[in-house]
Amino acid sequence: YDKKSARELVCALKKKGLVRTVQKDDEPFKSLGLEAHLPSHQLLHEDKIYESCAVVSSAGSLLGSDLGRMIDKHDIILRFNHAPTREYEIDVGHKTTIRVVNSQVVSKPEFHFLESTLYRNISIVAWDPSKYNHSMEQWYKSPDHDIFTTYFKHRLLNPETDSYLLNPSTLWDLWDYIQAHMPLRIRRNPPSSGFLGLALLLPHCAHVDMFEFIPSFRMTKRCHYYDNVDDISCTFGVWHPLSAEKLLLLSMNIANDTAVFRDGYIRIPGYQTLGC
Ligand code: NCC
């Protein structure tokens, strides 16, 4: 293990962390006649580089941050799961381009994935953890939560919504990357939606600003800005290798300490910017 520069770390992620979504031709979906339910292209498939992209973590420390206006200035704004903007615009902004949702949010009735307007007229990337080294067939037979039924239904009901299913081997490619750059052994659980969101954007953005992923001086026990549950493990991780993700991303950051610890964001240069 040796300390790498921000550039080396970002460029190493480019090599390992290509985010792939399930396509029409992928098995077992093709043989099962499910092609019509799947997109024929990848998310952000055009050859366009967006100047600025924002990843808005759901951290409690966003509350009172006044970051909404800054977040809304970005060309692409990525949020997670059922994190709302309504009533929190001053702190988190009101625009959403992409939502990364996990399979609990897609499948559990309390999240109203099919009914809620949170999941319409934007791009959606839904993911479910497979086991390490499992094929897509094995994953389809035994997903962690039944993501498929609701995902397919959602596509039928909302043809105008651009929605994708993450190819789960992406999660393990990202996991391998994190482990390869950590001196300590991490548990074999997939990275958080936060890390996935960053990996999704780095090929398409000149830089990515991640809000309250590294806790600022507003750090709080509060899990999310939108509910009042106290749980510090939301910030440091218990199942996901969240602390390892955060240390790595802090090593890739090019923003100064005032931006990180007072304002509450890290800035990570995109692959194209670094010429990786
Ligand atoms: O909490 P969650 O994450 O939806 O948060 C989205 C991403 O924001 C970053 N985060 C969040 C809170 C916090 N205090 N600090 C942070 O840095 C993380 O990067 C996180 O990924 C998930 O990753 O999908 C997760 O989802 C929740 C939960 O399933 C959904 O919110 C729906 O209720 C998971 N919690 C539980 O399963 C109890 C969480 O572990 C991961």
Structure, explained:
The protein has 276 residues and is of the alpha/beta class. Helices cover 32% and strands 14% of the residues. The relative contact order is 0.20. Strands 5-4-3-2-1-6-7 form a 7-stranded mixed β-sheet, with helices on both faces. The longest helix is centred in the middle third of the chain and has 12 residues, at 169-180. Residues 57-60, 80-81, 102, 104-105, 192-194, 213, 223-224, 234-235, 239-240 line the site of cytidine-5'-monophosphate-5-N-acetylneuraminic acid (NCC).
Beta-strand residue percentage? 5-15%
What's the SSE pattern? HEHEHEHEHHEHHEHHHEH
Bound molecules: cytidine-5'-monophosphate-5-N-acetylneuraminic acid
Spans of 5+ residues with little confidence (pLDDT < 50)?
none
Q: Structural class, from secondary structure content?
A: alpha/beta
Share of helix, binned: 25-40%
Largest sheet: 7 strands, mixed
Q: Can you count the beta strands?
A: 7
What's the N-to-C terminus distance?
21 Å
Q: Radius of gyration, Cα only, in angstroms?
A: 18 Å
Q: What features would you highlight for this structure?
A:
276 residues; alpha/beta; 7-stranded mixed sheet; globular; binds cytidine-5'-monophosphate-5-N-acetylneuraminic acid
